Amino acid sequence: MRQSTSESLTAWLFLAPALCVLGAFGLFPIGYALFVSLHDWRIRRGALLGLRHYRRALGEPEALLWFVLGCLLIVVVARLRGSRLLHRLSLGRCQRRAALALLLGLGLWLALVPGLRGLCATGDPRLYNGLRVTALYALATIPVQLSLSMLLAYLLLMSLRAKGFFRVVLFLPYVTPVIASAVVFRSIFSPDPASLANRLWTWCGFGQLRWLYESRSVVALLLRAAGMQAWPVWIDTFFPSLALTSIVVYNIWVYIGYDTVILLAGLSAIPRHYYEAAQIDGASAWQSFRHITLPLVSPTLFFLSMVAVIGTFRAFNHIYIMRTAGARDSVDVLSVTIFDVLFENHNAGYAAALAFVLFAVILALTALQNRVVGKRVFYGD
C-alpha cells in the first residue's frame, strides 16, 4: 500500500510541471475568456450580462432549440439505420426505409427552416456570414489540397531520383514566414494590369480580373462571361468569391508541401510485397491504389483532414493581410470578424462570446469527423 502511494506521488510530481503549464497557458485563458464573455467588457469590466452576448450572436432561443432538436433527430436516424431495433418491429424493408426517410426529412426541416433560418433572421449577421465564408473556405481548400498532396506523394514515391530535392522544394512554402508570403501573393493577385495573375490570365486569352478586390462569386463571373446579365442571389451566397478563391490558392500553395511530405512517409511505410502480390494476381494500377494504397494510408489522410478542418476554421493571419476593401465581407472568416469586434469596436465581451461559438463549432465538427470518418479508417488487423 505504501509503495503504491509512493509511486502515485512520484508520478504526480513528474506531471506537476506539465500540468502547471497546461493550467496557466491553456485552461486559465479559456476560463477567463468565458468570464469575459459574460460581462459588458469594453476597456474595463462592466456589468454582468449573463448569456446576453450569446443570445445576441446566435439569435432567439426558440430557433436554437428547433435547430438542436433537428440535429438530434438526424443523429437518431443515423443510429437507427445501423441498429437492430427496427428489425425487431413488424415492418417490411420498404416500410423501414420509408420511416427513416420520413424522420430524416423531419429532422432536416426542423434544423433548416425553423432552426437555422430563424437563427439567421434573429442573430448577428456578421456571425453567420463569418461561418458561411469559413465553411466555403474549408470546402474549397481541403479536398483540393489533400488530392494534390496525394498525387504528388504518389509520384515522388514512384520516382527514385532527386526525391530529397523535391521534398525540400515542396516544404519551403510551409516554412516561409506567413506575413512575407501573403504580402507577395497580395501583389500577385492585384487588379493592376501588370500583376502576375492578370498577365497570365490575359496571356490565356481572357480579360483582366480584380482578383482580391472582387466580391462576386466565381460562378457569377463565369455566368457574366457567358453573356448572362442577371443570376439568382444564392449563387453569390453558396459559392466563394474570386477574392476568397485567390486566398484559397495561397493556402493550398502553403500547405500542399507539408501534406505531401507526411503522405510520402505514410506511403513509404506500405510493404512492397502487397503490390507484388496484387500484380501477380493481375490487379491494375488503379485497383492496387484503391484496395492497397488508400486503405493503408487512410490513417495519415484522416490525421491530415482533421488538422486541415481545424486549421481552416482558425485561419486568420494570411486572410487578414490579403483582405481588401473591394472584397467587402466575402473573405471575412469568423476569426477575422472576432478580431474586428475586439480591436475596432473595442467590445471584448462580445468578441469572447463569438470566440466560444467558434470553439463550439470546431469541437462539433471534430467530433462529427471522428465519429463518421474515423470508422472508415483502416488501422490493420
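Second entry:
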Amino acid sequence: MGKGAARWWHALWLVWMVVARLTWLGTLPGGDRSWATGVSADGSVVVGGAENAEGWSRAFRWTASGGMEDLNITYAHLLTDGSKLYAANAISPDGRYVVGGGYNAATRRIEAFLLDTQWTGVEERLTWLGTLGGGGSLATGVSADGSVVVGVTENAAGKWPAFGSVVVSEAWNAAWQMPAFGSLEEVIVEAWKAAWKWKWRAFRWTAAGGMQNLGTLPGSDESEARGVSADGSVVVGSARNAAGQWRAFRWTAAGGMQNLGTLGGDHSWAAGISADGSVVVGEAENAAGQDRAFRWTAARGMRSLGTLGGDWSEAYGVSSDGSVVVGWAENAEGQPHAFRWTAARGMDDLNLTYAHLLTDGSVLEVANAISPDGRYIVGQGYNAATGRDEAFLLDTRRPGVEERSGATRVRLRLLPQLVHERVALELEAAEAAGRVTIVVSDVLGRVVAELLRGAVLPPGVHRVELDVRAWAAGQYTVVLRTEAGSTAVPLAVVR
C-alpha cells in the first residue's frame, strides 16, 4: 500500500470516529412548543407543528440553513384570503410535497391541504382537498411523488373527524350561525371538549379522482387513514368493527379493507407503512390488556415489539424496507421515551443509545417518523437547554460514519463515489465478520440492489462490483450491515 493509500485509510478512520448528531429545532418566535412529524429522505427538511406567540398551532418547515419557518409566512401569497395552515403531518421523500390540515377561508372549513413547494420548478401551489360532502378533513400521509394523499374526513352524513395534530371543531354548526365568524382559534378550542363524539371516514385523494371514501369494516361507520405506500396503492389506518372495537387495517383497490386483528386484546391502530406496503406498524392491545407497539407482515401476522420496561408502547414510523421501526414506549419508571426497533437489537431506548448527546438532562420522548433509509429520526422531547418541549432531528449516522466507533469492524470504500457505469465496493475486515449485507437505496428509499446477503467475510480486503448503467442519475445510499452494526456511504450516479 503506497503513501497515498495509507493517507486515505488514516483519514477514513478519523471520519469513522464521528458520532451521531442531535438537533433541537426550536419553536416559532414567542412559542413554547413544537413537534416534528415528517422528514425528507436526506434529512434536510423537517415538517411538523409549533405554537406561535399567541399559543396557536402553525405548520412549520425546518432546514439547517433557514431554521424553523412558519409556512403561513413563507407561503403568505397563497393564503391571501385569510386561510391558515395549522400543522404539517407528512412530507414526501424529496421534500417537495407537504400535507396536513388548516383553515380554508373560501369554504370556511378545516380541510386537508397539499402544498407543492416546487410546482413547475419555480412556483408553489396550495391545493385544498375538500371533503366527502361534510364539514372538514385532515391529511395524514402522502405518496412519494405527491400524487396520492390520505387522511380522514367528514362525509355527507355529518360524521366529522377529530384526529391528528390539528385541533378541529365540534362547534362548526354553531360557528355557521354566528353573526360574525370571529376568532377561528376560539371556535377550534371548543373542539377538544367534545371531539370524541364525532366519527370519521378514511379517504384517499388524487388530482384526477378527487377524494375517495375508503369505507369501513363490515357493520361499522368509522375509519381513519394514517399512512400510504410509496406508490400510493396501499393505505393503512384504523376502523371500527361491528362490535365498535378499533382494528388496524390495510387497504388496496383490489382487496378492499383488510382487518389486521390485534395482539389478543380488543383494539389496534395502524400508523406507518413500508415503501412497498408489505410492513405495517402501529399499536395493539394484548390479551393482558396492555398496549404494545406492533409490526405486521402477511407472512408472520402481527407481532409485539415489546416495551422499554413499562406497560405501554406505540409505533409510528417505519423505514422503507420495513426493517427499522420508531415510536415511543414507557420505561420502567413509566416515563415516555422514544425508541428504535430492529430485528437484530430489539427495542432500543434512544435516550440510552444516544446518551452522550443528552448530557444536559434533555429527553427524547416520542419518535414520530423516520427517513426511508432509517438514518434520520424526528419527533419531540424535552430540551433542557431551553426548558421547552421541542421538535428534534436525530442523525444516527453521517456518510461513512458509524453510530459507534468500530462497531461493524468492517470499513467500506466506494471507487469512485461519482459513478457513470460501474462502482467497486471495497470492504476491509479487521477480523472475520458475519451476516454481512450491502443494500443500495435511492432517494425515495426504494431498494435498487442487495449484495452479499448475509455472507461471512474472512479478515482482509474484499471487492464487489456493481453495474449502475441502467440506473437513473441521482443520489443513492449504500448501507453496509453486519451483525455488529451498520455504516452508510453516499453514492452519486451521473449521466
